[in-house]
Amino acid sequence: MAQFKKHYTLEEARALLPKIREWFAHLDQCQETMAQVEKRLSSLSSEGHDLGGETVDRWAKTLADMRTILHEFQSREIQVKDMERGLIDFPALREGREVFLCWEKDEEDIENWHDIDTGYSGREPL
Question: From the CB of residue 10, how many other CB atoms can be counted at a distance below 10 Å?
Fold first, then answer.
């Protein structure tokens, strides 16, 4: 029985790469913003200031932005394995069994796959 409802062909997965690159660029920006805001909140807290206002609003908005982007992956059943590396897996069928097409954001194209239970270390060229 299939673990995933959606299985991507190589062409379908490749067609999503431009959008996925945009999502990861936005996630990278969000992570930078979160680091800045959390540093500011930590500083305010250690100085005994009341935490609230614009800094907390920015933190909440950035967190909401990240959740929205991650939902884009989730709604398409694309597995985010490492957000910082931009490592994702697309559920696919290969020789009649479920596998993952594996891609990392610094890669030009989707060139690898692996069994569902082996992960990155089991990557093999397509």
Answer: 16
- For 123, residues 6+ apart whose C-beta sits below 8 A from its C-beta are 102, 112, 113, 114
pLDDT in tens, 11-22: 999 999 999 999
- Rg value, the chain, Cα: 18
DSSP 81-98: EETTTTEEEEEEEETTEE
Residues 62 and 37: beta-carbon distance below 8 Å: yes
Q: What is the model's pTM?
A: 0.87
Q: At what angle do helices 53-75 and 10-46 cross, to 10 degrees?
A: 160
Percentage above 90 pLDDT, the chain: 81
Instruction: Provide the residue count of the chain.
Output: 126
**CB distance 41 to 55 below 8 Å:** yes
Using one digit for the tens of pLDDT, what is the confidence trace for 16-59? 999 999 999 999 999 999 999 988 888 877 777 666 788 889 99
* Residue 87 CB coordination number (10 Å): 19
